[in-house]
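Re: that backbone. Tokens:
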């Protein structure tokens, strides 16, 4: 306890308490642990000055702390720094004779603990990056230009169904084409446009 509330560990103890309260709130659902995160690689927007966010993101990337929610990286960093500083406060600080030297040595311990914590956190969060990969969902309009296979007996201005081959599974879509076409089941066609209001695609026979 003396090491935890003594200088310099007291500073990190206060930060650790803040982190603990944050995760307790996340546990009961009052905050989303990813909502305050910063995606360093995609450069997502966040509240605050964009210049400050960009600078912080640059520092985090440079330190190897990208790829996981900011809250997780910061929590691990604070915990590791607190542990190192607390150990130094228990074993090293009692050997320092005067108050002036304690302040000087304590400041050095604080800076060194944070520096070592950054390196350790970069190693610890690296295996977690795969858990927080953001996959962009495919939008309806993204199918425009692709080839589909007609699944209905015919396609006209009101009715029609087709299948778009995708990696892993095919997608069933509603389609239409001008009445004067010869599309029938099994024919290949090209998707020309997406009608958002009707939630269907215009197609034409593949050249």
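Recovered sequence:
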């Amino acid at each position: 306890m003396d090491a935890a509330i003594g200088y310099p560990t007291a500073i990190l103890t206060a930060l650790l308490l803040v982190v603990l309260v944050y995760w307790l709130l996340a546990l009961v659902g009052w905050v989303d642990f990813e909502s305050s995160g910063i995606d360093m690689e995609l450069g997502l927007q966040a509240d605050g000055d964009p210049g400050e966010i960009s600078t912080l993101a640059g520092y985090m990337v440079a330190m190897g702390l990208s790829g996981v929610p900011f809250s997780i990286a910061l929590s691990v960093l604070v915990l590791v720094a607190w542990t190192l500083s607390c150990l130094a406060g228990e074993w090293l600080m009692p050997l320092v004779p005067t108050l002036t030297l304690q302040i000087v040595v304590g400041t050095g311990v604080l800076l060194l603990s944070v520096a070592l914590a950054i390196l350790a956190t970069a190693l610890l969060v690296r295996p977690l990056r795969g858990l927080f990969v953001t996959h962009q969902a495919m939008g309806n309009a993204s199918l425009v230009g692709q080839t589909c296979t007609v699944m209905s007996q015919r396609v006209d201005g009101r009715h029609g169904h087709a299948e778009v081959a995708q990696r892993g599974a095919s997608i069933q879509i509603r389609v239409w084409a001008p009445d004067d076409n010869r599309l029938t089941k099994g024919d290949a066609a090209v998707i020309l446009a997406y009608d958002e209001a009707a939630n269907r695609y215009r197609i034409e026979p593949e050249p």
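The CA atoms of residues 172 and 190 lie 14 Å apart. The chain has five helices and five strands.
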